[in-house]
Design goal:
alpha/beta, 434 Repressor (Amino-terminal Domain), Rossmann fold, 3 domains, six-stranded mixed β-sheet, 17% strand, elongated
Amino acid sequence: MSKVTIKDIAKGAGVSISTVSYVLSGKRSVSEEVKKKIYEQIELLNYKPDAVARSFKSRKTNIIGLYCAKKTDTLNTDIFFLKMISGMMDAAEKRNYKILVLNEMEASENFVIPIDKTFPIDGAVVTGTMNSQLYLNQLQSENIPFVLIGKPPKDMTINYIDNDNVKAAYQAVEALIKKDVKSIGMVTDSGMGTRISDFEIGYMMAHNDYQIPYKSEHIIRFDVTKPSYVESIIERIKHYKLDGVLVSLLFNKLINQLLTNPLIANDITTVSFGFDLVAEHYQYLNKPLDYIESNAYRLGSEAIATLIEVINNPEAETTQSLLPPVITTLNSAIGN
């Protein structure tokens, strides 16, 4: 028996091929009477081209769109993203859903993101991409359920999940204080510009609560893409006589020096954000290390669970979730 095609559907329904295409893609309005004829032919001929045809009765595709960074060549090295998407896939599979990765598109003035209905989705997860605001606006205007992983724009009340980075930085400072560290610094990405990150807010709050003098120069902002950033930051740490620092995993080369170089590690106590993603690669440390777990897997898993709940209950209240920080101490891989 030959494979059923869209031409067969059109012939059986007494309509044009383009009309069937419009119904499948949703790109144009078609009368309910014509839709009914096409759906009847699809079921009669058992036409199953993709998730769209399989879902005519339920009007669901069981597909979730993931809007992520455009540069896919970075995905192989972005451990956080890989761990997060692993959590998404496991959570989706348990609920009989699949993930469709939709790479970030170029932004321009008056940019509008086209929602391609030839790849229909029941809902979307948006990660912290360059064009997050544009994706969120377009998904909202199309009434497509979505969940953001990351901090939402101030003017939007939306479903989102993120780490509680204010509390994470606060507890990181506390961990250093308990180790009798006197002068605490923070290394952060200069890509934030003049904006104050949640990490910095938590850092400042802890200084205030513990009555430690706050010095803005102790927050070291640096471009992580600069080839000589490690030497430059260590020079600043020494210049300001810091004996403890909070460092993002973005600065992995710096962390490596702070943990393994005995000329530095013995004088500077480090707390890392997200070190759980690379901890297995460190066999020898000069002293125990405290780190704030990335929650990457859990962020992905709970984002999918939240989104499917929203898909199934469109009238449900907006879910805004902050995952509490988890501090772990690495003791098992200490060398002399």
